[in-house]
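OP here, attaching both records as promised.
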Amino acid sequence: MHSTICGSIYYDGTVQIYEISLVQHIYDVVTRLLDFVDSYTPYLILSLLLRGFEGFGAILFLCSMFMMSTTVFHGRVAMSFAILQTVFLVGNSIGPLLGSLLNSSFGYAAPYILFGILQMITSVLAAWTLPKDTLNTSSSISNSLRGYLEILKIPSVAIFIYACGVSGTGPEFLTAILEPNLRQFSLGKVEVGLVFCLVAFLQLVSPLWGYLIDILKKPHLFALIGSIVMVTAVVMVGPFPGINPDYGILVAGLVTFGLAQGILSVSSITNLRLSIMQNGIKESMISISFVSMGYLTATSVGATIGPLMAGVLYQEFGFQNATLFLIVGNLILGFLVLGIIFCRTSKSIARSAEYSDTSHNDAEKNLLFNRSSRMSYS
């Protein structure tokens, strides 16, 4: 939730924000010194302070990454975001493996110190290698607070912030209660692990969705498709109340879920940026920081609500009925996006009709003028 503050810290550019995220990497190294603190109270206080700095640095890092991808790759925003998302996913997947190997070979502190030093070096190199922001930091919006409030008044922006929250809710919701549901199929530990890896592996195709969104220029359509595919996936995974559970259908549903998750996440942040630009707000550091802040905040809230609601609903109603939460959430998103598409299509038709009438009237005026000119000449 630090992103609501960090998103407004844009200084002279996003490279500076990336450099400030150095505090996260310092934490990785300094936290190992806590082993030398013997007293309980100082240890607890220092741990809380260091964790706070680590969270602040982590969100600065994420904000700067999304902001830099927008300012540097103007024509490939969806593609660059999808690549970033894929790299983060790969890092989260192999991180525990590398950490366990380092821990078993060199001790508990080795992973923290090694990765902390590597990230510190990366942050320092960023000042020399990353290009400076090409956007003009001046904006038609007078200040960041007023700018954020002005952006929040746009209905489509609120809808796609909700879409970002929905995209963050699904994976965490399913992860929290999927394992108990798999017990009915008497799977081994390796098979259960592969089922969980299946969803993450299929999200690696996110760059494909980013490429298609950038090429086809139809992010609203992809958001609608993503919500429909997600509903279909959850109906298969549940399965929908009244349908007998089947392992084959469940696996097919998880495959569909992974594909839908990639479409939703990439299209949500792309539509959030597009909604701001289409409502007359010039792209600036304020609008870009809002997109980064809004996406990270919404997905964080979704990732918090997801497992909480999953646990409560699973305990009270069981797995099948609990999945209705995701179905309803994505159906609402689908109808909202469909409303946006309908409104934009209606406006385009109205503008086309108005343009045709204007052109027709101009043609008639020119014809009358030519006739009167010929009569006067005669």
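Record two, same layout:
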Amino acid sequence: MLVEQPHSHTLISGSADKTIKVWDLNNGFCNGVLDKHKGSVISLTPIPRHCFSPSNGFCFCSAGSDGKIYVWMYTPSQIENVKAVELKENEKLNCLLVVSPYVVTGSGGSLMFGYHLYDSMFRILQSNHKDAVRCLVTLPNALFASGSIDGSIGIWDAQNLVQLLNLNATEVYADHGIYLYSINVLLTFENFLVAAVYNSFHIYELPKFNQLCAAENAHSCAITTIAYCSATLYPDTTFLITASEDAEIKVWHFSHSRKKGDTMLLQLIDQPALQGHSGAIHTVAQIFLDRVIASCSSDKFVILWKDGDYQREFRNNLAAVHVADRETNMATNG
């Protein structure tokens, strides 16, 4: 898992080798190795600056299979562990999210916990989930969401840690040990919430939480990660990227009209699934500019992908703008 701090050109990575590494994105060098955890690093999450962060750095949390949460403070001169919290869960930790002033956790059980960042006191959150919580995400308007393998999505008041809504609740959610409605990933962008529901994904409109559209059976296996890529050339278009245990990456064209209120979801016809990995894909992300994608997999490879046609069009348009600006300047100064 990765936490990127774009303004500091720093990337934080955590691994099953029990270490956290700090990377300089300018040169690719590793600037530090943190080895506090005695088990696999399961999750990383940034801490909002208004909680407690240095003026010239940032803070983040890490959680491991050793049952510990560590709070780290990064500055250009040092990386310091400022707090350690003992987890109270009896089940394996799956995810965590900073909801100031708490760190909220989801685990292999239906119980969710909130650990106070300052005094380390904890609260048990009264959840409507029936089974393990797989993912957490921050929402606008002081809300956050939780996703469970029982197929339900919980919407929470971030200030009081109270569940307000329970979406997609089903009575039967497993078939011979396969969780066909499991919410594996939650993602927010603009005014939308995307939920990976086993091998499908659904899109909800915020703040009403009404389902706008869905891509059923998008992959042959469970979706493991979702990202989005906003395109400069097409301001009303977003390209959603999904990756799966089937080792494939798919790009989806999501466009919407704010005036008409209509929404459309379709797979790009002229771009087949991206195939290059030989194992389940863990992470995909947009990097650099416009539709350049990075993916990493259990096959231990990181692959960079780009859309050649799009990049060519982008460069041509950019060159045309520069030529027009130069001609305008020449006419003005001439």
